[in-house]
Design a protein that fits this description.
2 domains, Rossmann fold, 6-stranded parallel sheet, disordered C terminus, alpha/beta, 374 residues, 9-stranded mixed sheet
Length: 374
């Protein structure tokens, strides 16, 4: 393939970054069509050649008719499924931002659309593609800890204010932070354990730390952070923190926690996998994994030398997507992985609202789950 013609839907900061990562793999990549209401911003984020020649369209069908080789979707979260379903009917390769859906209705419609589609999808799950996570998966598969039996996973977010001081504060768009953040973590855990999540019991805390300034006049509690228009627990809002008990289909149990008021050096993201033979722990902020062997008097440490965006996962996803478009590889982060994660996140959200264990909708007949060709 000489060069590559890409269509973009919602070219914001995140997708612009990913398109630049794709150009590092395919220097001939050109954005030739765009579906975005902010034409000036799109042109301003593109190289001069693309900015002058990009064609603005109103529909996915128009974009496909423009001769694109692939499409990338980076809209606000509540629109991901809608556009992905439309792309499914074209059969074109798709790069899709997470979460792939924000409601159960969207997710089921997405599942139905791609069961009948020839489109190959790369979902934006960079954590599973990061070198550290791939190494952890290999160590688990090598039997380093024996059979994994238990997982403790955490995400202490030192930049959590962004979910309250930017467009992410709109709960109707994000659907809450299980869908916005835990979708990554539920995905990499299922990826490492090679097993989907089947049951969840979750809790969340809202409005105790982050509060709506427009509804809190006169309050001066130094333990709280006030922002405009972030909602309330009653109307719906992103959580201060949340957690879940998680059961996988292979019997592994996990405890997961995410905290959004962490600051500075307290940030942490990773997990501890426990088996009878050993304990494997890793943390992306430290770029390090360690294995304690239960029956040997030593441990192994693994250090990642590079410090790249999303811990190197963005580059790996971009390379994979280019190879998918060229027909050289299958997706390492398929639409089915995206749906499995969303179904788990939706079950967690339901559980937190109902105070009950909730079953996770399962995908069936997944012969088309893809693995790399090389």
């Amino acid at each position: 393939m000489s060069g590559m013609k890409l269509g973009v839907i919602g070219l914001g900061t995140r997708l612009s970054h990913m398109v630049n990562c794709m150009r590092e793999v395919e220097s001939g990549l050109q954005v030739v069509a765009a579906l975005d209401p902010d034409e000036a911003s799109v042109r301003g984020s593109l190289p001069e050649k693309d900015a002058q020649s990009v064609r603005f369209v109103r529909t996915v069908d128009e974009m496909a008719a423009a001769g694109v080789d692939a499409i990338a979707v980076g809209t606000r979260c509540n629109l991901h499924a809608q556009y992905a379903i439309e792309v499914a009917s074209t059969g074109l390769p798709l790069f899709l931002e997470k979460p792939v859906a924000t409601t159960l209705e969207q997710a089921i419609a997405l599942e139905e659309a791609f069961r009948a589609s020839e489109s190959n999808v790369v979902v934006s799950f960079p954590l599973r593609a990061s070198p550290l996570c791939v190494r952890v998966k290999h160590l688990l598969e090598e039997g380093t800890v024996g059979i994994p039996q238990h997982v403790m996973a955490v995400n202490y977010v030192p930049y959590g204010d962004v979910y309250f001081n930017s467009w992410y504060r709109d709960y109707q768009v994000t659907g809450g932070l299980f869908l916005q953040k835990a979708t990554h973590d539920f995905d990499y855990l299922a990826y490492c354990l090679r097993s989907p999540i089947v049951r969840v019991a979750a809790m969340r805390s809202c409005g105790r730390v982050y509060r709506d300034a427009s509804l809190s006049e006169g309050e001066s509690d130094a333990s709280c952070a006030y922002f405009e228009h972030i909602g309330t627990p009653e109307t719906g809002m992103n959580e201060d923190s949340s957690g879940a008990l998680v059961e996988f289909a292979n019997g592994v149990q996990a405890v997961y926690t995410q905290v959004f008021f962490t600051k500075r050096g307290a940030g942490r993201r990773g997990a501890v996998f426990s088996g009878y033979r050993g304990t494997l722990s890793f943390d992306w902020y430290e770029n390090k994994a360690s294995v304690v062997h239960h029956f040997d008097s030593f441990k192994d440490d693994y250090q990642v030398d590079s410090d790249l965006p999303h811990h190197g996962g963005d580059g790996a996803l971009a390379e994979n997507f280019i190879r998918v478009v060229r027909g050289e590889a299958n997706s390492i982060s398929s639409i089915w992985a995206g749906l499995q994660s969303v179904y788990a996140c939706l079950a967690a959200k339901e559980s937190a609202e109902s105070n009950q264990f909730c079953a996770v909708r399962q995908l069936t007949n997944l012969e088309r789950i893809e693995v790399p060709l090389s």
